[in-house]
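call fold(seq) -> tokens
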Amino acid sequence: MKILLIHGPNLNVLGKRDRAIYGDQTLAEIESLVVKRAQELGAEVSAFQSNSEGTLIDFIQAETPKAAGIIINPGALTHYGLSLRDALEDSAIPVIEVHLSNIHAREKWRRKSVIAPITRAQISGKGVQGYIDALEILVTELKEKK
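ret:
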């Protein structure tokens, strides 16, 4: 089973960006951990990052017919990315939203997600472990569904 691991704007600078909030692991290191865990679970991960909402949508539309689920950290698009939300919803596959930081304990504008209502779950504030948790939830649900 193929899982899409999608990262939105500014996540390409993880490891350099405000380490007190986002940690010191790079995006490549996070992806490597998720890919390794996916292999242990018998799943495949295809990772993608873009700072452009349109490019993320193009990826979702092209790749979801071949995928079983999506893990996404939409970055700032969490709060206003309505076209991204539509693409995720139109994919008709399970989506889990992940955030490294606890968005509910940060600035007021970060607390609202336009993505969360169409997801299976939102995992926030668990750092890299949130990605692993999302993967394990998706794989478990997809295996039970078969």
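DSSP finds five helices and five strands in the chain.
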